[in-house]
Amino acid sequence: MKILLLLVLPALSAVLALKTGSLPFKLGVPGLCALILLAFLRRSPGLRRQGVWALVAAFGMSMVGDFFLSNRPGHAHFFEAGIAGFFVAHLGYLGYALRNGGLHRLTLAVLLVGFVPYFGLALSPAIGSWGLWIAVLLYLLISCVSLAAAVGLKQASWVKGFYVIGLGLVVFSDTVISFNEFLHYRELNGWILPTYYLAHLAVTSSILLQLDLRQAREPLS
After folding, report:
1. For position 220, what pLDDT does the model report?
2. For residues 136 and 177, is the Cβ–Cβ distance under 8 A?
3. Which residue, 141, 212, 201, is CA-closest to 171?
């Protein structure tokens, strides 16, 4: 469990981002998590075989999405660009999960039953352009699929648990953003960034705990 001390720096970046609202600190959370994973990828062929590189790419695309969403004022299509960045990030989360498991179909069905009517009845009437409508729908669908794939991971329970929590926090944070952006419901806005930062820490924890288990059995190669 000592390996989780590596998360001190991204956790500190998250705290500073919440305190100051500074974009560099905000980008530092996924950025530092990506660097931690990269350091172990260079030393562990096992992680490369498991597709952890896809998570590094996902964190990188989260930074891209963050940049566009944080600089939206005065730029007509930065919102769509931000959604696109996070869409590609979900492809990374999905790629890793499918490489180490498969879709949990019941979870996917439950998520779609909940989110598709939410989109059709609540979000769709509030979206003003076809481009944004398509972007939000595609993002909603990939979010459901990547969370269902997280539940379908075939890993030790606590390793999988942290990954599922991470993806669940991403979906929660994005859902609250949709409340704010399209329904003008802002009571939960204070949860958007803390859950977003915790999501990256949880996903990274999943990989670090996996390494901890492997090191208990054999030296890191």
Report:
1. 45
2. no
3. 141
Q: Tens digits of per-residue pLDDT, 70-116?
A: 998 888 789 999 999 999 999 999 999 999 999 999 999 999 999 99
Torsion sign, CA atoms 51, 52, 53, 56: positive
E strand or H helix that includes residue 129? none
**8 A C-beta contact, residue 126 and residue 183:** yes
Q: Are 158 and 105 in contact (CB under 8 A)?
A: no
Report the chain's C-alpha Rg in angstroms: 17
> In angstroms, rounded to a whole number, what is the distance separating the alpha carbons of residues 90 and 47?
19
Report the distance separating Cα 135 and Cα 158, nearest Å. 34
Burial class (CB in 10 A: 0-12, 13-18, 19+), 61: buried
The residues, ordered by sequence, that sit 6+ positions from 160 with a Cβ below 8 Å of its Cβ are 150, 153, 154, 206
The residue-averaged pLDDT of 204-212 equals 90
